[in-house]
Write a structure and sequence with these properties.
The structure is a single chain. This protein is an alpha/beta fold. The protein is built from eleven helices and eleven strands. The strands form two sheets. A six-stranded parallel beta sheet has the order 7-6-8-9-10-11, sandwiched between helices. Strands 2-1-3-4-5 form a five-stranded parallel beta sheet.
């Protein structure tokens, strides 16, 4: 995946786009769009509904639309967007595995992602690492029922550990910067050649492996059964990237057998339709999620690492700037 399409620094665009339709817009995002869009000469149409064939008329007259990452944009919807004149989609996310980008190009729509503060996900990743190696799920659960005894399992200190970082883009690099302050050994792997260690070496030597590579057809189940089998006994897996980077079935088996020390997951295969909703009074139809949540050494959070005030403001502003920049390019041919 390429680097995000726009940043807020030193961006100069000609204001040739006056309309933008924003789909799947949460209330806090909507407030920011209404605050920021007029500064750029844009009058947005905003809906909390995800883009679909049923509400495609909202995009009529808009060359650009903005979509969220929580719902897949189907190819049928892409065709419908093209028919009403949409030529550009800005997704309010770094990843765009929820859109078939190649198909969008075939129907005349360009798709780009946005830049937002990598610190949001990097901070959260370090928090998950610390919680995992200090057994915080069990500690907090016991404290909630007034059991204040020390755990039978002692925590570990990051300075004594080796952390393997898979993917050294903006977020992965921000994680590495933070890890240096803890004095731990850091191994890094990326598909680009350079000073990175071989993946097999990283897996075999790391006490913690954290995933920050984009999800593509090539990285689907990047950490599969074979690679999970190469991890050190007692190693921890952290994933704040995309759920499908992990073969979840293989991970659960390794955790349930006691071979791995634990996992901290902010993303999960099959999270669509489960995360971002109140499921307290509904059955959760994901056997793997339920098995993970039963384990005392597994932390699961609902794809929330990115969700900070700073990152959200970046996301909304850069969605607008992306559309303006595209409109300027289109205007000049």
């Amino acid at each position: 995946m390429t680097e995000p399409a726009a940043t807020t620094s030193a961006v100069t665009v000609r204001r040739t786009v006056t309309d933008l339709t924003v789909f799947g817009c949460e209330p806090d995002e909507a407030a920011l769009f209404r605050e920021l869009a007029p500064r750029f000469g844009i009058a947005p149409t905003i809906t909390d509904a995800a883009v679909s064939e049923a509400n495609i008329d909202l995009a009529f007259g808009s060359r650009c639309v903005s979509v969220g990452h929580k719902t897949r944009v189907t190819n049928a919807t892409l065709r419908a967007l093209s028919r009403v004149g949409v030529t550009y989609i800005s997704t309010r996310s770094v990843g765009y595995n929820h859109i078939d980008v190649r198909y969008a190009e075939r129907v005349g729509i360009r798709v780009e992602n946005v830049a937002y503060s990598p610190d949001s996900v990097a901070d959260y990743t370090l928090m998950l690492m610390l919680m995992a190696v200090r057994n915080m799920k069990s500690v907090l659960r016991r404290a909630d029922v007034h059991d204040y005894r020390l755990s039978a399992t002692r925590g570990r200190e990051l300075r004594d550990l080796t952390v393997g970082v898979v993917g050294t883009g903006r977020i992965g690099s921000a994680v590495i910067d933070r890890l240096r302050g803890f004095g731990c050994r850091v191994l890094a792997y990326d598909k680009d050649p350079g000073t990175r260690v071989p993946l097999e070496e990283l897996l075999q030597r790391s006490d913690i492996v954290t995933l920050h590579t984009p999800l593509t057809a090539e990285t689907q189940h990047f950490l599969d059964r074979r690679r999970i089998g190469q991890l050190k006994p007692g190693a921890f897996v952290v994933n704040t990237g995309r759920g499908a980077l992990l073969d979840t079935e293989a991970l659960v088996a390794a955790l349930e057998s006691g071979r791995l020390g634990g996992a901290a997951l902010d993303v999960l295969e099959g999270e669509e339709g489960i995360f971002y909703a109140d499921r307290r009074d509904e059955p959760v139809e994901s056997d793997l999620l339920l098995r993970l949540q039963k384990l005392p050494n597994v932390i699961v959070s609902p794809h929330t690492a990115y969700y900070t005030d700073h990152a959200l403001s970046d996301t909304v502003e850069n969605s607008i700037i992306n559309c303006l920049r595209f409109g300027s390019r289109e205007h000049h041919g």
